[in-house]
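BUG-502 | component: ligand-complex export | severity: low

The export step for zinc ion jobs runs without errors, but we want the raw record kept on the ticket for reference. Input record follows.
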Amino acid sequence: MFERVQMKQLNDHLWLMDDNHEGTGYLIAGSEKALVIDTMNGFENVRAIAATVTDKPVLVINTHGHCDHIYGNVWFDEAMLDEKDLKIAAWHFSMPQFVKAVRQYGLKVPPFRTVKEGDIIDLGGLTAQIISLPGHTPGGICVLLREDRILFTGDGINRHLWMQLEESLPLAELLKNLDRIAFVKEKADWIAHGHAQGLEPVSLFDKLREGVRQLVEQRGTEVTDSDREYDWFGGRALQHEFDENSVIVYTRDKLPAVDMAKEFAVIDSYCGIDCSACGFRKDGACGGCRETEGRPFHMQEGKKCPLAGCCQKKGIRWCADCGDIPCEELNRFSSDPEHGDHPAGARIERLGQLKGELLSKARQGVGTLAVCGLSCGENCFLGEWCGRCGSDYSCCSYAALCPEGKCPNLLCVREKGIEGCWDCPELDACQKGFYGIDDRPAANLAKAGALFIRCFGRSAFSTMLHYILKEKGQRYNDFFKFMEKKSAEELLAAMEAYYGED
Ligand SMILES: [Zn+2]
Ligand SMILES: [Zn+2]
């Protein structure tokens, strides 16, 4: 009767609706009313499907605002949704293909009625309770069918949790929200999610929570470092396994930022020497060169160590931040036969190693996209030596030329409290910082990037980049060499053309 949607009866008043394995909806029939949870892709008349098993009036609720859960709303007069997903739903409803199809079949998108945490829907003998779970989307909800002890979770809890989306919350927020609703484990035995073929035991909740916790608390350890890449149509992400055939898909910018001040606590000296095991430190005769402000015990008459003094004069935290590393003085200290390192050069090696660790931590949670719209990751010669734009270890070569080594675009974005220049109303005419440089092709490329993101969003930008890098086999660098002497507007047009080709 219906070709795409297969009905599977779960008990005498509950059905699972599998839309061609592309989305799952549910139908609950109470003695007074029926409730459809998610209307799937809408290719087939969901109201007619419901009518094959119930003659009661049918209410509709959407777990969130994504197309594979809301497009079938067109078969109804009204649907319920959390207010925070209205914008996302409107965006999906504005897709040209959808608009065309809806017009063609003489249908229309019904209005939403908003629901919130704690709302109860009485179906007659069966009660559905709304539980808010922001994460996958900001307005994601779960529906608890109390009598059956089933929690309908949409895409908020499933075996393929997409958290890489622009609208997805940071993983630490998701963790907090999962903990907030942990009480559902006492109220439900089963989870019915938005891409399921059947019911899952509620233990899925804890398994997923543990995966999220690992990402939040053990980032940068071998637990997360082994996460593989994940290709999807919006670009490249990472996937973290949490159970058999189950992953959390995320991007690094969804991870919590690293507290660099805490990370720097491992550095106990300016020159990289490890004084933690020194006898003078242990017996309290010397606090180490940082605590003594560069006057450790071996300096006579409270004189300052030349290496510490040099760092202080240059305003850098330690020798590893110096452009002249390893300088003659540092080499002399390290290879001094009497007071130097064993083996010679040990502290220089330690500097490099510590710096490498700090850098990789600085980069975590910081995307390759600079606030000005330049994608540094694939492009910059500083590559792995830079902690990336805005991080504590940014070594942006442009910023280095600016007063106090601070990029005016970054300062401006921070002051305005926006994510990047693409969010700024003054972008078009802006000549600030990087944008004001005429002889740098990368400057126009940056502005074109910001203009592109303003129109199409960040994930479209990464799709476009991915296309240039992978499909066209071009390096971003070559792309802008080819585009040299082109204005930001011309570059934007070229990016749009690439995006359209994809
Ligand atoms: Zn979704
Ligand atoms: Zn979905």
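Assignee comment: Attached the raw record above. The chain is about 35% helix and 15% strand.
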